[in-house]
Design brief:
The chain is α/β, with parallel strands linked by helices. The chain has a domain at about 10-100 and about 180-325: P-loop containing nucleotide triphosphate hydrolases (Rossmann fold). It is built from 11 helices and 12 strands. The strands form 2 sheets. It has an 8-stranded mixed sheet, sandwiched between helices. A 4-stranded antiparallel sheet has the order 2-1-4-5. Strand 4 (about 75-80) and strand 5 (about 85) form a beta hairpin. Bound molecules: adenosine-5'-diphosphate and magnesium ion. Adenosine-5'-diphosphate binds near residues 58, 60 and 63. Magnesium ion (MG) binds near residues 62 and 187.
Length: about 350
Amino acid sequence: MSAVSAPTPPLLEARHVSKEYPVGAGLTLRRRREVVHAVTDVSITVGAGEVFGLVGESGCGKSTLSRLMVALERPSSGEVRIDGINLSEIGGRRLRALRRDFQLMFQDPDASLDPRMRVGASVAEPLAAQRIGTRRERAATVARLLDEVGLSRDVAERFPHELSGGQRQRVGLARALSLQPRLIVADEPVSALDVSVQAQVINLLRETQVQHGLTYVVISHDLAVIHYLADRIGVMYLGVLVEVGPADRIYAAPAHPYTAGLVETIPRPAPAGQRGRRQAAIRGELPSPVNPPSGCRFRTRCPSAQDRCAVEVPQLREFGAGHTAACHFPLYPAAAGAAPSGSLSGV
Ligand code: ADP
Ligand code: MG
């Protein structure tokens, strides 16, 4: 299987990463010890300065992978490397020092903001924890960060509950930026926000990424959000990576039936007077990650599935420059540049 290569030297690399969680231990049925296959054999490379988008339905393993990427958890197997350093091989001081370079931003800013702490103290907390600057210098940094995320400075004196969801997510970003990280992993950064506020926060994420030359991994169940933000997109289904490629390519000429289904659920501009509708393009429910389907995990919901899909795990194959998909019966033939003419513009 060929690794997915990024255009720039990799800052972040996941190599055959899997994560299993034990479930049901000691429950009434006394079954054999079962595990949730949250992430299975995922390899991803993210270049410095790149925005990599990760998309897939709720429960497909995106948050688990994000925690592995910032070393909040360790993989059951495989490796996560930052600058080539295997995070499982270092510990203590070195890991703490490296952690300054990567920050996780959550869907729910409430989870990362202490409700009893004033906003200014929350934003300054990572600096204080690392003993960076005097109290006064930290206050100046907080003021600058609040400016940068479009909040007025007096917000520093308020408590999280006094702010709107959009303002809290701006505070979350200010906090994530405080240690001048190189990598920000943003897990569903706009999913908890009203649609009207989402665009503002998305634009802010883009601006800060460009301004600081940051590397982002942005995670969302919403392909429209990911397509807008990301240079490259990885599509996950039930713990596995099914397709990776340049964002426009994934959006306009997906090779995997699951990705095509995701694209179809994006509302299109409707003729005047009609409402844009989201179609339920992917039938059925997500199977249990405790007993994922054999072969291709998507086969139970796939319109193109055949017998082979139940027995053979599809490997990622090339569908164009930097574009790979794992499917036995893709929407067009594999091999470099094999997209039928017109498929790029025809969607
Ligand atoms: P997503 O972020 O894409 O919604 P998650 O990574 O949160 O997906 O979850 C993937 C799967 O792993 C789900 O079935 C979830 O229930 C399970 N899972 C996640 N974290 C844990 C955990 N700590 N213990 C047990 N199961 C977990
Ligand atoms: Mg999640």
